[in-house]
Structure formats: structure tokens, C-alpha cells
Specification:
The complex is a heterodimer of chains A (about 475) and B (about 425).
Chain A lengths: L3 H11 L4 E2 L2 H5 L15 E3 L4 H14 L3 E4 L16 E4 L6 E5 L4 E4 L5 H8 L4 E2 L12 H7 L6 H4 L6 E7 L5 E5 L10 H5 L8 E8 L1 E2 L3 E9 L2 H13 L6 E6 H11 L9 E9 L1 H17 L4 E4 L3 H12 L1 H4 L6 E4 L9 H15 L3 E6 L7 E5 L6 H17 L18 H4 L2 H14 L14 H4 L10 H4 L7
Helix pairs in contact in A: 1-3, 8-10, 9-11, 13-14
Chain B lengths: L10 E2 L31 E4 L3 H13 L4 E4 L16 E4 L6 E5 L4 E5 L4 H8 L4 E2 L13 H7 L6 H4 L2 H4 E7 L5 E5 L12 H4 L8 E8 L1 E2 L3 E8 L3 H13 L6 E4 L3 E8 L1 H10 L10 E2 L2 H16 L5 E6 L5 H12 L5 E7 L4 E7 L3 H17 L3 E6 L4 H4 L10 H11 L15
Parallel strand pairs in B: 2-4, 3-4
Antiparallel strand pairs in B: 1-2, 5-6, 6-10, 7-11, 8-9, 8-10, 12-14, 12-15, 13-14, 13-17, 16-18, 16-19, 17-18
Helix pairs in contact in B: 10-11
Classes of the chains: A alpha+beta (about 475), B alpha+beta (about 425).
Organism (chain A): Streptomyces nanshensis
Protein name (chain A): Glycolate oxidase subunit GlcD
GO molecular function (chain A): FAD binding; oxidoreductase activity
Chain lengths: ~475, ~425
């Protein structure tokens, strides 16, 4: 319980204007981008510095209060959903670029700096920050660290973990530690790498060192229409098998295109069944050479039309359409869930066929827009809550995620497990695996105060039986025992 | 594509009976290796040939409260602080099978005792490779060992290290627990990434039994330019010039005498890069090496980075801009002493290697300690990789404790409460 005396302690540490306890204000923080999960916190604090975060977390630790870090609240897995009677630590006021070193190509940032801002500040030096989640204009680098965010260009450039070399973090006991550093080696286990993607359960990153890349000399982008999703899938395979590493390969199906066009008029063809966006970047000489091969491969695999962006504005519009896809679905459906499963790229067609079947069975439409280059699906399950379809939609979304695991993939490629998929974790990992992950969590946070209830399934959340039990392959083979 | 575990008992090995002993390990008598602490006894060597046997080996060691050293190819056994004579040495060379390779998915699954060079041979027919080129590769360095050492070579600039390419891992913890994280796909954020706990752990947190890795297409061509530079500041300037250019080098290294700049790509684009590079201001004197000279140059860089017996090797990481000052400090420290110091640097990433030769152990110890202080003052960190005999008596193996020490100790308690795995490796930290 947070009584008036404790609230005054928070106010003394952070300033009265940095502590919110008015119920109306608290309600603003009740959910993140996945609006189905809601919980009003007891208190919200808005620190401005590492020291203030440490002060707030120390008070939480002393009082045994659970706390949840929050960036822009754009997450799609319920990772920033508050805990009842707990504290939300909003990093919204920590928006400073602390250092920019164009020669060593690195920046040190407070966690509230937006992803797009990093590249904007780096641009005058011909540099940029590679990971580019669709929400990059709003989402923060602190949130990106928590989720190990990716984006459309992961297939060539990797994820947040490949671009963050160092972190200053406030640990769940309120102490401050530096993980990693300016260079990509440091003694001992890679705590930096463990922390990135831990979804706020190991502490709060308060200063983040990122490496910047030189802006590529050339970028070439095309949209190729295909008569079937399978043909588009074959084109993807052909491109990836050709020895070319494209910067991005995205696919949209007709329903996703319909939504995008209704929202931003990006020039996608409404007549096609599937559209591929392929982007190459790099040294002009090489890029042009490889781009010709990509165009040829699209023709070889039966494209009906190839549109090549001839200006930066045209390329920007193609990406605007692609990145607006989630929100655009609002134009064609009152409500939607977005899933984030991954399948091996060679099983994309199979996955899409099964999603279509599942969609027919539940009687709900599913739009597909995804990162085809790395097999990361983003099925959008469309439904109408007013018509009582929410429960069916939720079931369909969970079934799709679990099908991805069945096909040898993952529950999540970039949105995180959060609250949303914690109960599905036993589909992907054995009990022992999860117990070992819990050990790791305990090492950082023995009292489980940092973002409890996320990532790992709990009996309270998932029922006494933690999800459906599936034996670990080793267990089935008699190699290991279940404890 | 997945091969099954072959039946059979755990194999024992020693120098005299390598890999073919049929006796169950529990009854094995000690064989080769360093004497166990205090007792003068040799450690028992076990060589599991699969995941189940590896789990048995660690479970047995745990129940008998024996200390354990995990050994791959043995190319990095000296890294960090010396390990107190272990009761059991677990060799990973029997964990060397290919489990799966899906060329179209850009993934491969292997047992982690497989040498990197062997994996490259298996991937090459599909036009693929694991894009790492660590100096220890020619010594047979294994994939699990490379992960545990956090080691990588010059092309880390483009691809990162082995840890950056791991998409899934199966570990055997010091208590024998088998745990898995990640998966088989190249994009995946589900759950904690346990492989990161192994990355840089130098064997103190468990055994890496299997790895799923992301592979890359083999570049059609590579080309290397060499530029004479015996001065650190000049070398750094050259590196920055090429990094500012649109040519996208995949490696930029300085061996103390020359800067090596590597490009790759299609045959045509690699040639174009080599042609354009000398036009960059400051790089006019850079000359392209022919294929043979290119191979030789990188081989020599690996050798010079590894060092030799009797030499002391310290690896440091700072921001690249610190190099000239650190080079100057090294010169001051060795001036008027019989110690000769060689400084090499991954110029684009701030990874520096100092190799000391000449002089005696006390002089090596004094030089490494003072230079390491300078590294830490510059906000960096350092790992001792090799030492002349006697250096340990006069110098700490590790520098100042990291600020995350409490977490490291807590992790060690969670994963190896008895402190049995690689005991002493991170002393005095934990």
C-alpha cells in the first residue's frame, strides 16, 4: 500500500511535480499498445535522471512494491501494463541526447529519446541508427532495449542487441551498474546482452550507448505484385538463395493492402493478391548490380508488375504505407489483434495457408503484413468487440502464435512476450528451461519486483497448471527427466 | 535431418588412450592433466559424445562435489585468472556433430564442440559460412569455446562475434540441468537469451552443448588494402577516413606497422572498392594485396594477436579514439626497459591487443598492470589472455571489479552455487 507518508517520500526524492497519484491521471497509464489488458497503478513517477530512477526504485525495493518501467507505451505485448498497487516509472522526461561522437560513431542516450530522433540527430554527420520498428516516430530507445526491438531491416542489420554496446541500468534493488561499454567486448558474461530483451524484468536502463552506421550510399526499393501468396513466397526464397542480403523484404496480402491504401494512399495495387517490398542498400556500384538481379528474379517467379521507386519521396511513401499497416487496419475493422510469430522462412506458405484455414473456421478475417525475409509474421486478426467477437479473436490469435512454434518457429519475433503471451511460453519451452530462466531472473531480482507477471508464466496468471504441458524433446527421448 | 544420440557409454580419454575407452566414467581413474589441488593427483578426463553424456558428466561431478574445467580445443585455457587444478576435465571434442543445416533458412544446428573450421567446410558447398574469423580458428577453436570466450576476429566490424550469431542454445548447467533458450529461427525474442550468460563466461557458468546459428552467404570476393603506418594516430586517421567513405569496409585493423583494410562483395564491387579506396584523402598510399599476400597478411595478424609462449597478451576494449593516448602510454612504460611491446588494434571498434616479450615476469607484470590502469582510466576494460610464467605472482589477472559485480556474484550463486566450474577463473571477483 502506498500511503500519504510514502507518497511524500517519493515527492521528496523526485519533486512534487514528478509524482502522480490523482486517479484520473493514473488512468492514462493503465495500458500500453495492447489495449486489452488494463490495470491502474497506485502511483506514477516521472524521474529525470539515473539518480532519480535509482531513488524511486530504492523506495520500491524498501517497501516491496512492484514497479513497471514505461517508455512511450507503444508495446504490443502488454509489457508495460501496470501492476495493481504498484508503481509505474515513466521515462518520458528522460529525453536527452547525452553524448554524440561522430568520429567513433556512437551516441549516449537517455531512455526516453525516440528511435527516430536518434537518426535525426545523427543525420548531419551522415550517420543513422539501424533498428527501425514501425512505431519508430513515437517509441523510445529505452523501450527498444527492453523489447530487443527489430523492424523492417533486421534481416541485414540485426536487432537492438546488435546496436547497443553499453547500458547504465538501475537494478531492482536501486543500485546502479554499467553493463557492456563503448566497445563490443567486456570481461565476464554478457550482461548487456542478457538485459536487452528482458522486457523490464531485470531493471531499468537509464543511459544507453548505441553505435551508429554510415548512411548507405544508395537505397533501391521496389514493389512487386504477385498473383498468389505462394508465388511471392517463392520470389523471396529465390532472392535469399541468390547470395544477396537484402536490407528488407516485406510482404502484404490483399486485405492488408486494402487497409493501407484506405489510410495513406501509398500506391499499392488493389488488384493484386500479394505485394513484396524489396529494398537493397549499400555502395551504389554493388546495389545497382544486385537490384537488377532482384528484378529479374521477381519476373522469373511470375510477378505481374514491378514498381521501382525513382525518388526518395516515392520510397518514403512505400514505407509509409507498410509501416502504417497496423493502424490502417482500423479503417476496415473496428478492432484487431496483431500477432508476432516467426516461422522458418521456408515454411511461410504453409503458415499462411493454415492461417487462412483457421480464419475461415473462426469466421474472422485475418490480414497479413510481415517481414518475409526473416519469417516474422504479423497476422492482424480483425474483429468487432461490439458484436461479441473478442473472445474468438483472442483464441484465434493465440492459436496462430502457437502454430508458429509448431512449425519450428517462435511465439514472438520482436513484440515481446509481455503479459500477452506469457501463458503460451510452455508451448515453446520445457519446464526446466523456464525454471532456469527464473533462476536468471532471481539473480537480478530476488524479490520479483521488476515488471512481475511478464515473460514467464505464473500460476496466478495462467491457472494452476502453467499452460498445456508438452514434454521437452529430450525428455520424450528419455534423455532428461522432468522434476 | 536431426541425427539421434548414438547409444553407448561415456568415453574416457587421456593422451595414451584417446577417445576410445569404454569404461563408464564414474569408475575411471585419473589420467592426464594438471595435478588436482593439494593432492598431487591428476584430474579425471571425460569426453562425452552427446548431450546426454555431457549432462551425466556434470551431474556426476556435482553429486561428488568435484571441481570441473570445460575444455574445447584448449586455445584459450589461459584467458582470465588461472583455474585451480580441477578434479574433472570435461572435453567437448566428442560433441562435434552437425545436427541440421537449412541453407534456405540461413540456419545451422551443431554440437558445440565442433571446430569452427569444420563448420566452415560443411557450410561451404551451400555457398555459406559463419562470418567470424577469430585468431584461434587455426588452432581448432570450437564454436562453444568461441562463444564462452566472446572471441571474434577482424570481421566483427560487420558481423559481430559468435554470440551475435547464436539464435538458440542448449546448455548443461554446473548441476547437470539441461536448458534451452532461443530457437531455430533467425528472429526471435521469446524468453531470456541464456546464450548471453555463456558469452564471455570462460566456462564458469556451464557447458555449451549445442548451438543454432545464423549463417550468411559467402562473399563472392574479398580484397585487402595495406597502408604503412607505424604511428597510432595516423592509423586511426586512415581508419576514420575509410569508415566515412561509402566503401563499407568489413575489417579495419592495425598491426603496429600497417593498416589492413578489407572489403568484400561481388567480384565486380570488391574490385571497384579496391580501385576507389586510394582516392580517399589520406589513403593514396594504400596498395591492394594480391590474393596470396592477402591470405598471408591476415594469417600474420592472427598470429601476432595470439602471441607465443613466453609472451604476455592483454586484450583491451575502449572507444577507438583512446588508441593514440594508450599507444603513447605503452611507449612510456616500455621505454628504457628490456620489455618489448607490440600494440595491435581493431581501429573501428576500439579493441586493442598488447603483446609483451623480452624482459622478465616482474617487468611484464608491472607493464601490464600500469597499462591496464590507463585502459580503465579511459573508461575501458581488459582481459589477460596469456602470460609469461611468473606474471601471476606479481600481477592481478583482472583489473578493477565491474560495477555489476553484485549481479555477477548473484548469477554465479544461482548457476554454480558450489563454485565448482572453472574455480578461480574470475578471482577475486567471484
Amino acid at each position: 500500500m502506498i500511503d500519504a507518508a510514502l507518497r511524500r517520500e517519493f515527492e521528496a526524492a523526485l519533486g512534487a511535480d514528478a509524482v502522480l497519484s490523482d486517479p484520473l491521471q493514473l488512468r492514462t497509464y493503465e495500458c500500453d499498445g495492447l489495449t486489452g489488458f488494463r490495470e491502474v497503478p497506485a502511483l506514477v513517477v516521472l524521474p529525470r535522471s539515473t539518480e532519480e530512477v535509482a531513488a524511486a526504485v530504492s523506495l520500491c525495493a524498501r517497501e516491496g512494491l512492484p514497479f513497471v518501467a514505461r517508455g512511450a507505451g507503444t508495446g504490443l505485448s502488454g509489457g508495460a501494463v501496470p501492476v495493481a498497487q504498484g508503481v509505474v516509472v515513466s521515462l518520458a522526461r528522460m529525453r536527452q541526447v547525452l553524448e554524440l561522437d561522430p568520429e567513433d560513431r556512437r551516441m549516449v542516450l537517455q531512455p526516453g529519446v525516440t528511435n527516430a530522433e536518434i537518426s535525426r540527430v545523427a543525420a548531419p554527420h551522415g550517420l543513422y541508427y539501424a533498428p527501425d520498428p514501425s512505431s519508430q516516430v513515437v517509441c523510445t530507445i529505452g523501450g527498444n532495449v527492453a523489447e530487443n526491438s527489430g523492424g523492417a531491416h533486421c534481416v541485414k542489420y540485426g536487432f537492438t542487441v546488435h546496436h547497443v554496446t553499453g547500458l547504465r541500468v538501475v537494478l531492482p534493488d536501486g543500485s546502479v551498474a554499467d553493463l557492456g561499454g563503448d566497445a563490443p567486448e567486456s570481461p565476464g558474461p554478457d550482461l548487456r546482452g542478457l538485459f536487452i530483451g528482458s522486457e523490464g524484468t531485470l531493471g531499468i536502463a537509464t543511459e544507453i550507448t548505441v553505435r551508429l552506421l554510415r548512411v548507405p550510399e544508395t537505397v533501391r526499393t521496389l514493389v512487386a505484385d504477385f498473383p498468389t501468396v505462394e508465388a511471392a513466397g517463392e520470389a523471396v526464397s529465390a532472392i535469399m538463395a541468390s547470395g544477396i542480403v537484402p536490407a528488407a523484404v516485406e510482404m502484404l496480402d490483399s486485405l492488408a493492402i486494402e487497409a493501407c491504401e484506405a489510410a495513406v494512399h501509398a500506391g499499392y495495387s488493389l488488384e493484386t493478391t500479394a505485394a513484396l517490398v524489396v529494398e537493397l542498400d549499400g555502395m551504389e556500384h554493388e546495389c545497382d548490380e544486385q537490384f537488377e538481379r532482384v528484378v529479374a528474379l521477381c519476373h522469373e517467379k511470375g510477378t505481374s508488375h514491378v514498381r521501382i521507386a525513382t525518388t526518395d519521396a516515392e520510397r518514403a511513401l512505400i514505407w509509409k504505407g507498410r509501416k502504417a499497416a497496423f493502424a490502417a487496419v482500423g479503417r476496415i475493422s473496428p478492432d484487431y489483434f496483431v500477432q508476432d510469430g516467426v516461422v522458418p522462412r521456408t515454411r511461410l506458405s504453409e503458415a499462411l495457408t493454415r492461417i487462412a484455414e483457421m480464419s475461415r473456421t473462426e469466421g474472422l478475417r485475418v490480414a497479413n503484413v510481415f517481414h518475409a525475409g526473416d519469417g516474422n509474421l504479423h497476422p492482424l486478426v480483425l474483429f468487432d468487440e461490439q458484436a461479441g467477437e473478442a473472445e474468438r479473436a483472442e483464441r484465434l490469435a493465440a492459436e496462430i502464435a502457437e502454430m508458429c512454434v509448431e512449425l519450428g518457429g517462435s511465439l514472438s519475433g520482436e513484440h515481446g512476450i509481455g503479459l500477452d503471451k506469457a501463458c503460451s511460453m510452455p508451448e515453446m519451452f520445457g519446464e526446466t528451461d523456464l525454471a532456469v530462466m527464473r533462476r536468471l531472473r532471481t539473480a537480478f531480482d530476488p524479490d520479483a519486483l521488476a515488471n512481475p507477471g511478464k515473460v514467464l508464466p505464473t500460476p496466478r496468471l495462467c491457472g494452476e497448471a502453467p499452460g498445456r504441458y508438452r514434454p521437452h524433446p529430450l525428455e520424450a527421448a528419455g534423455v532428461i527427466e522432468r522434476w | 535431418m536431426v541425427s539421434e544420440e548414438p547409444p553407448g557409454s561415456l568415453r574416457e580419454s587421456g593422451p595414451s588412450t584417446p577417445a576410445h575407452g569404454g569404461a563408464p566414467h564414474a569408475s575411471a581413474s585419473p589420467s592426464a592433466g594438471t595435478p588436482a589441488a593439494g593432492t598431487g593427483e591428476l584430474p579425471t578426463r571425460v569426453r562425452p559424445s552427446g548431450l546426454a553424456e555431457a549432462a551425466d558428466a556434470l551431474t556426476d561431478a556435482a553429486s561428488a562435489r568435484r571441481t570441473v574445467l570445460i575444455e574445447g580445443a584448449g586455445t584459450a585455457l589461459e584467458w582470465g585468472a588461472p583455474v585451480a587444478a580441477p578434479d574433472v576435465v570435461v572435453e567437448t571434442s566428442g560433441l562435434d556433430r552437425l545436427i541440421s543445416h537449412a541453407p534456405e533458412d540461413w540456419t545451422v544446428g551443431v554440437e558445440a564442440g565442433m571446430p569452427l573450421t569444420r563448420l566452415q567446410e560443411l557450410l561451404a558447398p551451400a555457398g555459406q559460412w559463419l562470418p567470424v574469423d577469430p585468431p584461434t580458428a587455426s588452432g581448432g577453436a570450437t564454436l562453444g569455446g568461441l562463444l564462452a570466450c566472446g572471441d571474434a576476429g577482424p570481421r566483427r566490424l560487420k558481423y559481430g562475434g559468435v554470440g551475435d550469431l547464436v539464435i538458440g542454445a542448449t546448455l548443461v548447467l554446473p548441476d547437470g540441468t539441461v536448458a534451452r533458450s532461443g530457437g531455430d529461427v533467425i528472429k526471435n525474442v521469446a524468453g531470456y537469451d541464456l546464450a548471453k550468460l555463456m558469452a564471455g563466461s570462460l566456462g564458469a557458468f556451464g557447458l555449451v552443448a549445442r548451438l543454432n546459428l545464423r549463417v550468411h552467404p559467402l562473399p563472392e570476393a574479398t580484397v585487402t588494402l595495406a597502408l604503412e603506418a607505424d604511428d597510432a594516430a595516423r592509423a586511426l586517421d586512415a581508419a576514420r577516413a575509410v569508415l566515412r567513405s561509402p566503401l563499407e569496409p568489413v575489417a579495419v585493423e592495425w598491426d603496429g606497422r600497417q593498416v589492413l583494410i578489407r572489403f568484400q562483395g561481388t567480384a565486380e564491387s570488391a574490385a571497384a572498392r579496391a580501385r576507389l579506396a586510394p582516392e580517399i584523402p589520406g589513403l593514396a598510399a594504400a596498395r591492394a594485396l594480391d590474393s596470396e599476400a592477402e591470405q598471408a597478411a591476415w594469417r600474420r595478424l592472427s598470429e601476432r594477436t595470439r602471441g607465443e609462449d613466453g609472451e604476455t597478451v592483454l586484450r583491451a576494449a575502449t572507444s577507438p579514439a583512446r588508441l593514440p593516448r594508450l599507444a603513447e602510454r605503452l611507449r612510456e612504460l616500455t621505454e628504457d626497459t628490456p620489455v618489448e611491446a607490440r600494440l595491435l588494434s581493431g581501429l573501428a571498434q576500439g579493441l586493442h591487443t598488447v603483446v609483451l616479450s623480452g624482459g622478465d615476469a616482474a617487468q611484464h607484470a608491472a607493464c601490464l598492470t600500469a597499462w591496464r590502469d590507463a585502459v580503465y582510466e579511459a573508461g575501458g576494460s581488459a582481459t589477460l589472455r596469456r602470460r609469461r610464467e611468473g606474471v601471476d605472482e606479481a600481477a592481478d589477472a583482472w583489473g578493477p571489479a565491474p560495477s555489476a559485480l553484485a549481479v555477477l556474484r548473484s548469477l554465479k550463486r544461482q548457476f554454480d552455487p558450489g563454485g565448482r566450474c572453472a574455480p578461480g577463473r574470475f578471482a577475486p571477483w567471484f
